Structures are given as C-alpha cells and as structure tokens.
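User
Take a look at the entry that follows and flag anything odd:
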Amino acid sequence: MLIRSKAPLRLGLAGGGTDVSPYSDLYGGGILNATINLYAYATIEPTDEGKISFETADGSQVKIFNSNCEIIPEGVFDIHAGIYNRVLRNYPDKNLSFRLITSLDAPQQSGLGTSSTLAVAILGAFVEWLKLPLGEYDIAQMAYEIERFDLGMAGGKQDQYSATFGGINFMEFYKDKVIVNPLRIKDSYLDELSHNLVLYYTDTSRLSSQIIQRQQQNVLDQDDTAIEAMHQLKNQAIMMKEALLRGNIDEIGKILDFGWKYKKQMATGITNAGLDELYKTAIGNGSTGGKFSGAGGGGYMFFYCPGNTRFQVIESLKKFGGHTERYEFTDDGLVTWTL
C-alpha cells in the first residue's frame, strides 16, 4: 500500500509579512495569495520492520530511526520529524512503521512557501493513512503550530493555509483565528494575469527566518517606519483584491510597485544593490511593478508586464543569471489518495 499527497506552492501577491506575529496579533493581517502548479509531494509506505525512514525522492538523503519513539530534529528532515512527533503525541494508539519519501518542484528557501507546503503535504499523507479527524482548517493550523512552536521556525501563517485550501484567497489573520476568503475571479482575468505576470528565479536562496526575525523585532520595538510599512502592505492586499475582482488587471503592476516601496521598509536584508538593479531593469523594459514572492533577500520574484512587454522583460533579465519559470494558477489545495 502507498499513501500519496501533494500540496501546491504559492505566489504571495500582496500583503506579505502582515501574517507574521506579533503584527497580526496586534493589528490584524491581510494577505492575497494564489497557488500555482508547482507542488510538494509526500509518499508514505507502511512497513512492519519497526523502523521509520525519511528519504528524499532522489535518494540523496536518507535517515532511519526506531519507530514509536520521538525523533530529535537534526537538520534536513526537521519538518518530517516535527510532524511525526506531533502525530505520535496526539495519537499514541497508532503503530507507526513506514518509509516517508518527499520532493519539491522548487528549491527550498526560494520564496514560494516550500517548507510550509511540504509540512502540509506530509501531514496530509498521515491524515489519509491514519484516517485522522482533521479538516482543512485543522490541518493548516496544526502544520503552522508544528513549524512555529514545536520546531521554533520563524515565519507567518499564510503558507500553510494557501497550501491546504488552494486557489486565489484573501486571508485575514488575527491573534486567535484565520479567515480564508476564496475569491471568485473570472477565468479570463486569471488568464490575463498569468500571461502578464512573469515569474523569475534569481538563482539565489536566503534564510527567510533571519529577515522575519528582524521584522518581528521591529514590531516589538514599536519602529514606526516598519509598522507603517506593514499597514500599507495590508492596504495593498485590499487594493489587489479589488483590482482582480473588477478585472482591472493592468492596475496590478502599479499596486505591486506600491508594495515594493513599502516592503523594503519592513526590515533590513529584504533587498540589496543587485536585486534593486534587477528590479530597475525589469521596470526599464516595460514592467510596471513587481515583488519578491516571500520574505525577500532572493529566491523568486515576479513582475507584471502589460501588453506584450513580457518578452522584452524576460530577455532583459537573462544577464542576471537566473531563469523564468512557466506556471499556471491552480484551484486545488492539498490532495491525498491511497494506492
């Protein structure tokens, strides 16, 4: 028997960072994101060997442990261990002996929510295998708690919810709850957005946790500039939502550029001279705005390119050594099945 799952990665279109505590606890956060057809995958193969094996799909990393014992997170399989430990703790009557094999369609630490999406895919596979009584909100919240509390990983809440629910969502974040509002956007609007929104991988990765920790400290220190920037980014998410629902797709570039100016004020390390030059090059060749898909500092960026300017923008970015990524928006969130 094989138990499989997949969960989609996401583009953080607007409001990025306002889902991070303590800002969301104090002021409420607002995010607009969209899942795309790049995924995190997990496969569980139950065994009767009394062992647990964590493996990457290409076989380059393998760790084996005794079953039914908590595992100390120690590196590449921290998320795997954290989820297994929580399942073992919450459901001690389950006899857990298995191989867990995982993979991602994008590099880790690249800004598409890879770590949290992988957490959702792994947890979803356990839910499918063990028939755990968890709905969508339960899965997203548990994945969040495992990452942030059990494993002490800095970050926000949007990634777990986008991966679980899928689609285009306006999400609200408060101290004690998250509200996921699916947006009903005409297919023609989404087709135009997908055509005009160029996804570019800078061929760099970054530790988003360091940027997020600085952002959190700025809120704790009551840094007026950083907090006002977060307020404006929350407004950006509302602006983006209205533009999409009304079909004012060409306004999106200006809305992205609005957010670019404020995003840099949230914390140090979000951008640098090289990334600023990349942004200016895209703007100089026809893009009307762009942003990082994540905390910043590298990874994926995307640019809104109206009309037929996408081709000139793509050509202009070749000198920076990265590459553009083809994608489509997807409606599906976490999917699980058994063979």
Observations:
- The two ends are 6 Å apart (CA to CA).
- The mean pLDDT is 93.
